[in-house]
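Hey L., structure's done. Input below.
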Amino acid sequence: MNSALAAPLDEGQLSDSRLAFIRMLGLFVVLGALLAALAFFLIDGAITTERANIDLLQRENAKLDAQIKEIASVEFDIKTLYQRQKAVEALQAVRNLPVRMLSAIVQATPETVVLTKLAQAGMHLTINGLARSNEEVAQLLRNLEALSTHFSHPDLVETVAFEGTPNAKDLRKALTFRISVDLVNADDALQSELATDGSPTARPPAAPAQ
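Output:
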């Protein structure tokens, strides 16, 4: 028999081998459990950190929303104050308009022309009066057109021969006239108010001259 062949293991050697294997297996089990626990804690820590970041972002978003609402409220207040300022300026311009209008009409009216009626509708003015000739009416139209900072688009609506009374010797040959003209207001606030609140007043159709 070949002496190089190993002798069979006895019971003591087999027990030692099993014990070493069991110890090695237990070591691997414990090591695996430790690694699993470490991985669990790492993942749980990452999830906790991520939740904390999400909560922080939500709180910051809530703060930003509150700031945006506050800014919108401030912008609304500023817009309201601006509109009130424009309304006050427009009201002041409207109050000053009749004074400016009458002063300009006096400046434009020739000395021999008599005005009998002024009718204003918004930014439109109708002028009725007496003149001794068509030339005086034409002169009034030219004067109104020259005052472009106060009037625009002066238009002769009609002229009618005036039938004077026996005592009105100077007016027996006069003409009655009606002129339509637009008022010009240099105040931008008033123009904006008029453009927002209503359309321009329609001008009456021109009647044929008699």
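The radius of gyration is 51 Å. Residues 18-210 form a domain with the Gyrase A; domain 2 fold (CATH 3.30.1360.100).

-- N.
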